[in-house]
Each structure stands twice: as C-alpha cells, then as structure tokens.
C-alpha cells in the first residue's frame, strides 16, 4: 500500500481525468495525492474551488463502501473521469454488487483495496481477509492485481488506467 501513492501521485499529476476517493480510511489506504484536493460543495450545492482555483478531485465518501462503488459506476457511465476509490479489502463484500455491475457494464473504475494480509493488524482477525482475493477473481471481466512491490504496483496502476473496457481491483498489503 505504500507503493501505491508513489504511482498514483505521478498518474494524478499527469491525468486530470482521475477522480479519487476513499471511505473513512484515506489515511490508511493512501488514495489522496497533492494533485487531488478534496471535492467540496457549499450549502447551496455549488462546487467550492480550492485557493488556486481548482475543483477538488478526491471524494470523501465516509463509511459507505457500497455507495462509493455505485457512485464510481455512475461517474464512469457519465464519462469524462476515471474513478478510483479505496477501502480495506475485507470491506469488498459490501461493494460486491457494485463491483459486479461495473464488470457486467465493462466500466473503467479502479477499486483500491488495502490491508490484504494474513498478518493480524491492529483491528484483529475481522480484518484478516484471506478469502477475498479468490472471491474477487470469480467476477467475470474484473481484472484483479495483487502486486508484490513498487514496480508491480506501478505496472498494475498503469494497466488499470489503460484498460478502457473493464474494472480493476488492486489488492495491496498492509
């Protein structure tokens, strides 16, 4: 997961069509970059620009894993953006229907899943998602990458962004 923001920082700086996001775990799944300030709207629903006049490119979804994935599908269907968003791999079950729909619709969305590990982290065995990689690989038309280092992570991100006809799941270790 530490290799992902290295690649992502380069890609988001070069590709303004990348629209990121995260559940309430941005600090852990590292999906925010200097090129992707938070997307904000005011009380009237108007988009708030950053101090330098940019529109934010990172959506803070909160604890809404299914909603996040479904919104990513809608963004991809609308066109113009390549949506990506991250959460812990163990929460992929909450997103499964939306991931499957993206695969059936052949939409280019990137699901970033972190904390793929057999090692127990601070959250204990409930977050030890050893079966989730296999279940994601069962979804037709979903590319599942489980890179082992910085080079493979950069290749996985590159492949996900080049792929125009199917979603990608990036499974990153703790």
Task: Provide a brief overview of the structure.
The chain has 174 residues and is an alpha/beta fold. 36% of the residues lie in helices and 18% in strands.
What does this structure look like?
- The protein has 174 residues and is of the alpha/beta class.
- Helices cover 36% and strands 18% of the residues.
- A six-stranded parallel sheet has the order 4-1-5-6-8-7, sandwiched between helices. The protein has a two-stranded antiparallel sheet with strand order 2-3.
- Helix 1 packs parallel to helix 6 and helix 3 packs parallel to helix 4.
- The longest helix is centred in the middle third of the chain and has 14 residues.
- The model has no long low-confidence stretch (mean pLDDT 86).
Radius of gyration: 15 Å
DSSP helical segment count: 6
For the report, how would you describe the main beta sheet? 6 strands, parallel
Count of DSSP strands: 8
The helix fraction, in percent, is 25-40%
Using the alpha-carbon principal axes, give the shape: globular
Mean pLDDT: 86
Q: Proportion of β residues?
A: 15-25%
Q: What structural category do the secondary elements indicate?
A: alpha/beta
What is the CA–CA distance across the termini?
6 Å
Order of helices and strands: HEHEEEHEHEHEHE
Q: Spans of 5+ residues with little confidence (pLDDT < 50)?
A: none
Per-chain topology:
Blueprint: H1 4-14, E1 18-22, H2 26-29, E2 40-41, E3 47-48, E4 58-60, H3 65-78, E5 82-88, H4 92-105, E6 110-114, H5 132-137, E7 143-145, H6 150-162, E8 168-171
Parallel strand pairs: 1-4, 1-5, 5-6, 6-8, 7-8
Antiparallel strand pairs: 2-3
Helix pairs in contact: 1-6, 3-4
